[in-house]
Specification:
It is a single chain. The chain has one domain: Orthogonal Bundle (Hypothetical protein af1432). The N and C termini lie far apart (37 Å). It is built from eleven helices and no strands. 64% of the residues lie in helices and 0% in strands. Helix 2 runs antiparallel to helix 3 (57-65), helix 3 crosses helix 8 (119-135) and helix 9 (145-161) runs antiparallel to helix 10 (166-176). It is mainly alpha-helical.
């Protein structure tokens, strides 16, 4: 997030600021798989993408918090108590169900869940996937075929349900940039 924590209308992003502090504590010590950088860089980028797309404070805050249920010891109840119903709904909409076995089955269920959750959830999902697609471009990053397939299926979903959104177009651009060599390796190593 930028230091001033205001949106382009000059309004203070108070929920986002609180969410950023909370997410930084929750993700403390976690690292990104692609490069070993602090994990918090991913939720920050998601929030920046949402902000750039004109999202409101609660949607940007959900972007900062979107991984706390999946990757941290945070419950929906705690999130609701701290950030309210809408932020919790959005974070929940983009959170996987850990009880579903199998990567492909779990990711399909996630896409279906997001598709039923409305345009704000789709926008958050798009920002998350743009950030993740950029991680695939990090030199030396491994690109598992199943992850690349999930991102491409996510793009298809977004092109159907959120076709004119700039983040949908951005995801297409980012996926097209995944080096052909990496995509070939991903295809060759597909389970």
């Amino acid at each position: 997030m930028r230091e001033e924590h205001t949106d382009r209308r000059g309004e203070e992003l108070s929920i986002t600021r609180a969410a950023l502090t909370y997410a930084e504590r929750s993700h403390e010590g976690q690292r990104r798989r692609c490069d070993g950088a602090p994990f918090i860089l991913h939720p920050r980028e998601v929030a920046d993408l949402l902000r750039g797309a004109g999202a409101d404070d609660e949607l940007i805050a959900a972007g900062v918090l979107h991984d706390v249920i999946e990757k941290c010891a945070v419950t929906r109840e705690e999130l609701n108590e701290r950030f309210g119903t809408r932020v919790t709904y959005l974070v929940s909409a983009v959170s996987e169900n850990p009880l579903i076995d199998g990567y492909a089955t779990r990711k399909r269920a996630l896409r279906e869940q997001v598709a039923r959750s409305g345009s704000d959830a789709l926008t958050l999902f798009a920002a998350d996937k743009v950030s993740k697609a950029r991680e695939l471009q990090v030199p030396g990053a491994k690109v598992p075929a199943r992850r690349l397939a999930h991102y491409r299926q996510s793009l298809e979903l977004l092109q159907t349900l959120l076709p004119s959104h700039p983040l949908t177009r951005q995801l297409g651009t980012e996926l097209a940039r995944v080096p052909a060599r990496q995509a070939a390796v991903a295809h060759a190593t597909q389970p």
